[in-house]
Amino acid sequence: MKWEEEGYTRKDEHGNIISIEEYEDSQRATGASRVMTKGDLKLYAICGVGFFLDSYDLFIINLVTPIWTYEYWGGLAKPPKKTPTYPLLLRGAVNAAANIGNIIGQLSFGFLGDAFGRKFVYGKEMIIMIVGVILVISLPNHLKGPTRNKFWYLFGMRVLMGIGIGGDYPMSASIVAERSSLRNRGRMLGWIFSNQGWGTLAGSIVTLIVLGCFSKALKHGEYSQLDAVWRIQIGVALLPAFATLYQRLTMPESKKYLQSGELSMLKPSSLSSSATTMEYTGKGAKAHTSDADSNEFSSQDRNALFVEAHVAPPTRDVQMKTFMIYFSEWRHLKQLIGTASCWFFVDVAFYGLNLNQSVLLAAIGFSKGKTEYDTLLKNAYGNLIIAAAGYVPGYFLTIYFIEILGRRWIQIQGFLVCALMFGIIAGDYAHLGTAGKFVCFTIAQLFFNFGPNATTFIVPGELYPSRVRGFAHGLSAATGKLGAILSGVLFNYLSSPGQIGVANVLWIFFACNVAGAISTFFLVPETKGVDADALDFKECQEKVARM
């Protein structure tokens, strides 16, 4: 599959270059408008696979943990001989390992993507993720020392895998935002991010298929086969990763990134001079000259100039200062605090629920079985039902409504509905039945994704100009992963007997969702129809005018 700049331009019936907005207008006028164009499908296939793998690799741990408990921590022994002894804090550390790597990847790849360009960085994160997955499934069972040594090995390799996963967040968000029109940008970002839902759903389906393949042996008590089960579960992620690696590595540089980065190098005199400058508008960049005697460019000439313009990327020392200068203004810093804090609040609850969904299903009595095989099967079915009924539909509600209702409305209502669901479960935990708790968890998953889990990814991709977008998005995402790490490490410990218990942990999730709604209301602006690059250029001109 060949990359093209189809996010910026189209060709008319005569083969002439036209802007994407002109193309959409012509499609709408003839009634030929489609959900996705050819260029959109290319973006969806290449960038979307990254989020499919992100979700699959991050959440498959939820389905693998019970198998590890059986295989390595005495879960197969019957009482009173022995009970599972998978240490709670070690389990939390292994669960959170990928999120620790996420922070490193989001910050480093976000900065490198702004400093060196999207082309320089894109695809390298996939290589790191592939290497990490291979090393995880290559866990040597003959590793000497106590069992915990094997799990510290898994911890280290999952951190490496997480670096690659984290690097995909700011890069794919920036690439999609820079290759989409204002009218479909939010919807396109929603389509790309919806692959998280498919990744989670695929994890449950793969688990059911693999367990089915080994059912005969497992039903006869041959539990040594579980070693192959979990390695296949995790290793399946390598197939789509290898399938899209070449396309990522051969991606051309984003024109909008180059044009936005030019602002970091321009001197004030350049912005105010009568020489030809690049003006950012909702339809792209147009060339203007102040010479009254010169002829205006034709529409085709302007669009050709837009497509063929190759602006040199900013020098490294200039780009390193750009982020600090841009966010030294309170109006920009306030927005960064808003996108980062909202992502933190949602990830505390979202990852607390998803990384430990198997634990919660067992706690509410859903995944109890007569045998170990029955327990694993019921756990996989429970995860599948929640993904199919709540997780995946939530993304498509966001895709449908995002250009109608806007980002802020979807984010606030999602936070509030999730808070309500956690409040219901926590408030009546002792009396609410298994079915009631299961339904509330499913509704919470629906409104996480028709809500803040989707919009906290989309808004930073639209709110910041291209020259700081990668690092700003990465910093927001990394702050969110701090919340995910807290949940991953502390959930099992705090919810265990003798600590605060599951109900009180759910009250913490309730509080985080309320705080997220408040933060959104006061700190996060609406980005529907907003061209951040156009605003950035306008702000630069205003600064010059005040000099």
TrEMBL record:
The entry's keywords: Membrane, Transmembrane, Transmembrane helix
Limits of the Major facilitator superfamily (MFS) profile domain: 43-528
GO cellular component: membrane
One term of GO molecular function: transmembrane transporter activity
InterPro entries, sorted: MFS_dom (IPR020846), MFS_sugar_transport-like (IPR005828), MFS_trans_sf (IPR036259), Sugar_transporter_CS (IPR005829)
Family annotation (Pfam families): Sugar_tr (PF00083)
Topology of the protein relative to the lipid bilayer: Multi-pass membrane protein
Superkingdom assignment: Eukaryota
Compartment(s) of residence: Membrane
Bilayer-spanning residue ranges: 43-68, 88-109, 121-139, 151-177, 198-218, 230-249, 380-402, 414-432, 438-459, 471-493, 505-524
Annotated PANTHER family: SOLUTE CARRIER FAMILY 22 MEMBER
Protein known as: Inorganic phosphate transporter pho84
Organism annotation: Alectoria fallacina
